[in-house]
Predict the structure.
Amino acid sequence: MRIEEFVTMPLLIQKYLNYLIVVKSKSELTALEYASDLRTFYRFIMIRYNLCDKDTPFDEISISGLSDDVIINITLDDAYAFLAYCRQKRNNSDNAIARKVVSIKRFYRYLEVNNILKENRIAFLEAPQTKKALPKYLTLEQSVKLLNSIDGKFKERDYCILTIFLNCGLRLSELVGINISHIRDDNTLVVKGKGNKERTVYLNEACLKAISSYLAVRPVDGVKDRDALFISSQKRRISKQGVQKIVERSLEKSGLSGLGFSTHKLRHTSATLMYQYGGVDPLQLKEILGHENLSTTEIYTHIKNEQLKQAVDSNPLNDPSNLKEP
């Protein structure tokens, strides 16, 4: 779905999406995810209420003519029928269904708060229980191996990119958005996170040295975006895709490709190393990573708990074959 397609949605949904972007400062990507989930839901409703040609393919059903009355009078049974459809016909996982529940409930909460609904039946909609997978990350040894593999024409730039990822735990969008003017004299960096929220990131010695080495060779003449820190070979601000290619190439050179690592996994790596080796408190880690909720950060505490469990399980006394019954 594209943001231009918002105008094809019912007016109530258009207002909600604009509210997310303008008032709640949600990113365009987040608004698109909500819009996509709501469009899928109301396409199902169009079929359920016989409001469209039954021969129209599901992904071609238009919901632009859906009335406010239909939206307002959706029942809890309608919502659960939709979730069952997602499970049985669309093969959605628990996580995918849980996300749709969030999208639907938040929309109806918006309608309730703005007195468009007299009764919010959807408030009681429940999502399936989901398991939080432990984040995948590089070990300390793998991280060092990755950094030591950097070479080539743009080695100072590429090394600086990976160093900041691994030391500061930035998101991809945050890294490409860094401007030289964002680096302060007190060795801190201002980054814009989700919802355009600014936070301060402290640069350690490794980051400062990497930035200094890169700035010494960073192109100046002919650069299109003079304030952008990281510049592509076309002398423009480096793109997300450009950074992803650098990471993929570096993983391949270091022999770490094919193991499920990616650009976002470098953020997980930074957080994990800080928690495991730096004794960083989860609340501090939350601020460093720019998480909105502590529950998002607490997944890194589970890593240590899992390692402790594995350590206990590896005790040879855990093997009954080594023991004689009393």
